[in-house]
Amino acid sequence: MMRSVLAAPLIAILLLAVLELVLRAHGFATSSTDDINLWCQERDRVSTLGTEGVVLLGTSRMQHGFSLNDFRNRHPKRPICQLAINGSEPAGTLIDIAERTRFRGLVICEFPYSCSARMNDANQIGSIWPEYYHRDWNLNRRVNRRIVSSIQERFVVATPNFGLNGMMKAIVSGRLVSRSGSTADRQIRGDLSVHSASELSDMERRWIDSLHRERREYESRGREAWEGDARAVGGMARKIERRGGRVVFVRFPLSNDFGRESRTAFPKEKFWNPFLQLAGVRGIDAEGNPALNQFNCPDGSHLDFRDAPAFTNALCSELERLGVL
Amino acid sequence: MVFNSYTFIIFFALVASIYNLPIPWVWKKRHLLLASYLFYAAWNPPFVLLLWLSTVVDWYVAKWMAASEEERRRRLLLILSLVINLGLLAFFKYAGFLIDTVNFVLGLWSLRLPVAAPSIILPAGISFYTFMTLSYSLDVFYRRTPPCKSFLDYALFLTFFPHLVSGPIVRAAEFTPQLEAPKQATAGQFALGLCLITYGLFEKTVLADYFLASPAEQLFKGEAVPDLLSAWCGILAFAGQIFYDFSGYTTCAIGVAMCFGFTFPENFRFPYAAAGFSDFWQRWHMSLSRWLRDYLYIPLGGNRHGTARLYRNLMLTMLLGGLWHGASWTFVIWGAMHGLFLIAERIVTGHGTRKLPGGGPGRALITVATFVCICFTWVFFRAHSLPQAFAICQGLLGVRPSQADRLLAMPDILRVVLVTTALLATHWVLRDTTWIQVFQRLRSTERTLLLALLLAMIVMAPGIDRAFVYFQF
C-alpha cells in the first residue's frame, strides 16, 4: 500500500509534466480561476488605490470588454481594480464601495440594459461576495489564494484555461483549442472565435431567455420598485461623490438578436434615460455612440478579447471628454 | 480551513510530522488538541471560546451526574446541559428563523414583533459538535457509558479536527477508548489514510465542484419554472453534488484520522443504491441517522407503542432532522417528505411482514423509485425559498411546458448525464462494500495508477472555490 502511495504522485507529476509541454506547444497560456477569493484579493486593494484609483464594477461584459493593460498603458499613474462579477448585477458591489470603503477615486459601473438594481436582494452574487469578504475573508483564505494564484501563474495544467473539460472536448473533437481564461487581475480573455456558430447561437439563446426572465421580473415588481431602486443607486453614487469620488455608469454594446431583443424589452427612453435622471448620475451609452457601438459581440453580449483594447481606448476617450478621467 | 486547500496540506504535514516524533503520549494528545483549536480558529477565532464553553460545561455536567446517585439532581444536571447546548444552537442557528416565523404569523393580523431578525454569524460545525456533546451527556445520564476520566481526552474527543466541522458525529464510547493507549498509524494505515484523503478530495474537487456544482446552481438561481430536461439534469447534478461534497469531506476526515491511527465510523455506504427509505437512512449520513435513532426515535417510543405512535415518532424524528440541517421551512418540508416516505414504506411492506426484493430487477426498480423520490426531496433541501422549490417541482413534473425556461446548455446536460450515470452505476455495483475494502482489494499496480489518475484530475480541476455544503449546518 505504501509503495502505491509513494509512486502515485510521481506518476501523476510525470503525466502532468507531459501535458504541460503539449499544452504550451499548442499555444495555451496560464489563467486564473476567477472565484470569490480572487475577487476578495482584488477587493483588498481598494483601500490602497487613492484618489487616482479606478474601480470597475459590473458584469462579465466589463470583464471581457475592458482591457486593464490598455488602460494602464494609457493612464500609467492610475491604479485600477476589477471588481465586476460574472453572472451578477453590480448593485451589491456598489453598495459595498459606497458604504464600506473610503474610496475617493473613479468608479466605472457597467449596468445591465434593464437598469434594474434589486438593491436589497441578499441572494444576488453581487451582494453575497462583498458579504463573504467582510465576514469570511481571513488570513487562512488569503494565504491559500496566494498559493493558488502562484501555482496558476506558472502551470497551464493547473489553470481553468484547459482543465478536465478541455481534455474531454479535445478527446471528442480531436483538437486542442485554447479557450477563454481569466488573468490574475480578473480580466477575462474571451476568445470567442474558438466557439462554433451553434455554440455561439446556444449562448445567445440563453442570454435571450435570461432577458425575458428579467422583463417578467420587472413587470411583476412594478415600475415603482424599479424607480425606487434607481434612486437608491443614485444615493450610493452620491455617497462616493460627496467624499470626492466620481461615478459613471456605462452600457456596453450588444449585438445580433440579443441586442435587438434587449432594445425592445428595455428601450432607452423608458429605462436608461429615466434611470440616469432618477439616480442623478452620469452615463455613457454605447447605443447611439458610433465610437463605442462599432464593435460586434459574437455571442450577442460580450466583446471578443481582440476588440477589448480598441473599445477600452474609445471608452477612455469618452470618460476624458466627460472630465472624470 | 478546509481539506481541499493548500493551507490544509501544510497544516496536516506539520501536525503529522510533530505527532510522529518520539514524544510522550500525553504530549501528542495535547499537540492534537492545540492543532484542533488552531484548525477551528482558522474559521473565526472568537468561536473557539464557544467550543471551549461546550467542552467545559459538559465535562463538569457528566462528572457530577456520574458522581450523584440522586435521580433528581442527575436530571437537573442533564437539563442544564441540554438548555445550555441547545440554547446556544437555538440562538446562533434559529433566532432569525423563529422571529421571521412569528412575524409571519402575527402579520396575518397586521402585527409584528418589536425586534428584527438578527444577522448572526453561524459558528462552523456547531450542529455537529453540539450533537456530539449532547450524546456524551445523555450516554452518561443513562449510564450507557462512564464519564471520561481525563479532561484532555474528553476535549480531544469533542474537538479533534478531522470530524470537528462536518462530522462524522462520533460517540464518546467510539473514540475515547482509542485515546487510552498510545496511537500511531502503521505504514499500511497511513498509506490507506492517504488513499482515502486522495479519493475524498477527488469526490469534492472534481466530481462535486468541477462537474456538478455549476449545473446545480443554474437550476437554483431564480424562480422561473425550468423545462423538463433542465429540471431533471439540474436536480441530478445537485443529487450528485451533495453526495460527493459531503461524502468527500467525510472520506477525507476518516482518512486524516486514520493517518494518526484513529478509527472513525463510516458515514456513507453508497446511498443511491438504497432500496427504500429505511435503507437510504442506513446508508446516508449514517452517524446522524444513528444519533436521531438513539436519542430521539427510540426515547420517543420507537415502534413499541402501536402504529399511530410509530408514525408520529418517525415524522417527529425526520422533522427535527430536517430542522437540524437548517433554519428554514424548506428544510422542515424536506424532513417531512422523508417522514412521509418512511411511513409509506412501512405501510407498503406491511410493517415488515412483506420484504422488499433483495436483488434482481425487483430491487433495481425499487432503487430507481427510491432515487427519484429522493431527488424530489433534494429540491426542498437546496431551494432558497418555497416558491423556488414549487417552480422546480413543476419543472420536474413537466407542468406548464410552454412557460418553462431552458436553464442548462447542452454541454452541461451531457456532463451531468455522464457523471450521474457513473455515480449510480458505482453505487449499484459497490452497494455492499466500502471504499476501504476496494482500495485494499486492488492490486498494487491498479491502486498506483488509480491514485495517480485521481491526483492528476484533482490538479486539473481548478474550479471555483466552493465551501463544503454541510459547513452551513
The span between the termini of chain A is: 64 Å
- Main β-sheet of chain A, in a few words? 5 strands, parallel
Number of helices of chain B: 19
Kindly report the oligomeric state of this protein. heterodimer
* Molecular shape of chain B: globular
Number of separate strands of chain A = 7
Strand content of chain A: 5-15%
Kindly state the mean pLDDT of chain B as a whole number?
90
Computed CA radius of gyration of chain B, to the nearest angstrom: 23 Å
Low-confidence stretches of chain B: none
| Shape annotation of chain A | globular
Structural class from helices and strands of chain B? mainly alpha
Structure overview:
The complex is a heterodimer of chains A (325) and B (473). By secondary structure, chain A is α/β, with parallel strands linked by helices. Chain A has one domain (41-139, 174-322): SGNH hydrolase (Rossmann fold, 3-Layer(aba) Sandwich). Helices cover 54% and strands 8% of the residues of chain A. In chain A, helix 2 (36-43) crosses helix 6, helix 4 (68-74) crosses helix 14 and helix 5 packs parallel to helix 6 (125-136). The N and C termini of chain A lie far apart (64 Å). The mean pLDDT of chain B is 90. Chain B folds into two domains: 21-183, no CATH class; 189-472, no CATH class. Chain B is globular, with a radius of gyration of 23 Å. In chain B, helix 4 (71-107) runs antiparallel to helix 5 (126-141) and helix 9 (187-219) packs across helix 19. By secondary structure, chain B is an all-alpha fold.
Task: Please render the helix and strand layout as text.
The complex is a heterodimer of chains A (about 325) and B (about 475).
Chain A: H1 2-25, H2 36-43, E1 54-57, H3 60-65, H4 68-74, E2 80-82, H5 91-100, E3 106-110, H6 125-136, H7 139-152, H8 163-173, E4 181-182, E5 188-189, H9 197-221, H10 223-242, E6 246-251, H11 256-265, H12 272-279, E7 282-285, H13 290-293, H14 308-322
Parallel strand pairs in A: 1-2, 1-3, 3-6, 6-7
Antiparallel strand pairs in A: 4-5
Chain B: H1 6-19, H2 25-41, H3 47-67, H4 71-107, H5 126-141, H6 151-159, H7 161-164, H8 172-175, H9 187-219, H10 228-259, H11 277-281, H12 286-300, H13 307-325, H14 329-348, H15 360-382, H16 386-397, H17 410-429, H18 435-441, H19 444-459
